[in-house]
Amino acid sequence: MSDNAIDVDPGTVYLVGSGPGDPDLLTVKATRLLEAADVVLHDKLPGPEIIDMLPEDRREDVGKRAGGERTPQSEINERLVELAREGNAVVRLKGGDSFVFGRGGEEAEYLAAHDVPFEVVPAVTSAIAAPAVAGIPVTHRDHASSVSFVTGHEDPTKEESAVDWDALAATGGTIVVLMGVGRLPDYTEALLEAGMAPETPVALVERGTWPGQQVATGTLETIVDARDEAGISPPAITVIGDVAGTRESIVDFLQTDYGTVEDEA
């Protein structure tokens, strides 16, 4: 354990965001809690380097993969309560920030409903960090003074999408889509039908800050082909708007520790 050890409370759950995936981007508090916790329930999205930091005898994989194995959220909720009631200090570790499309809010409600104390530990959300390390600011004085964060993977039980693509197309700001690589053709078409210009710049950042990071760029009209040429797959962030075009002017000088600098498509 480090000299900066932290006191944890038995029977408490810590809802911790791991940031975008680079261990160096973990917050100091998150690192201390990971060292001190009795057990860590983690997703896949914290990234392999962070997961490998956790002792095997103190970690439980409750991750989900699109189209693959998954631990139902109801089981995760029940496990958190069970472990806390046994007197453990429990870290629930999620990729990015647990309160940004991370279902941390649902877990907090479940813990509160079952009289389990918890603490929320914020983190750098991948919605901002992944574009940033690829050289894309989500806001820019010359290009975008607003940004909208959208999930590309909604609750499948919903009868219709809660995302108003027509309204988003009319805002004139940046649109950042999380977990939306598979549905890229659907929402790019929706934005085109809503009147967004076909030449609007778009960028895809796969595994932002992970060792295998790669970037594909194009326009609203060409980005699906660019995705396919580059072989972009989840987890990835989609950035739609003029800010995505600023990468072109800086990429030759952009230094990175995270895989490719040059676009793969």
From TrEMBL:
<dbReference type="InterPro" id="IPR014776">
    <property type="entry name" value="4pyrrole_Mease_sub2"/>
</dbReference>
<keyword id="KW-0627">Porphyrin biosynthesis</keyword>
<dbReference type="InterPro" id="IPR006366">
    <property type="entry name" value="CobA/CysG_C"/>
</dbReference>
<dbReference type="GO" id="GO:0019354">
    <property type="term" value="P:siroheme biosynthetic process"/>
</dbReference>
<comment type="subunit">
    <text>Homodimer.</text>
</comment>
<dbReference type="InterPro" id="IPR000878">
    <property type="entry name" value="4pyrrol_Mease"/>
</dbReference>
<dbReference type="InterPro" id="IPR035996">
    <property type="entry name" value="4pyrrol_Methylase_sf"/>
</dbReference>
<dbReference type="InterPro" id="IPR014777">
    <property type="entry name" value="4pyrrole_Mease_sub1"/>
</dbReference>
<keyword id="KW-0808">Transferase</keyword>
<keyword id="KW-0489">Methyltransferase</keyword>
<feature type="domain" description="Tetrapyrrole methylase">
    <location>
        <begin position="12"/>
        <end position="223"/>
    </location>
</feature>
<protein>
    <recommendedName>
        <fullName>uroporphyrinogen-III C-methyltransferase</fullName>
        <ecNumber>2.1.1.107</ecNumber>
    </recommendedName>
</protein>
<dbReference type="GO" id="GO:0032259">
    <property type="term" value="P:methylation"/>
</dbReference>
<dbReference type="Pfam" id="PF00590">
    <property type="entry name" value="TP_methylase"/>
</dbReference>
<keyword id="KW-0949">S-adenosyl-L-methionine</keyword>
<dbReference type="GO" id="GO:0004851">
    <property type="term" value="F:uroporphyrin-III C-methyltransferase activity"/>
</dbReference>
<dbReference type="InterPro" id="IPR050161">
    <property type="entry name" value="Siro_Cobalamin_biosynth"/>
</dbReference>
<dbReference type="InterPro" id="IPR003043">
    <property type="entry name" value="Uropor_MeTrfase_CS"/>
</dbReference>
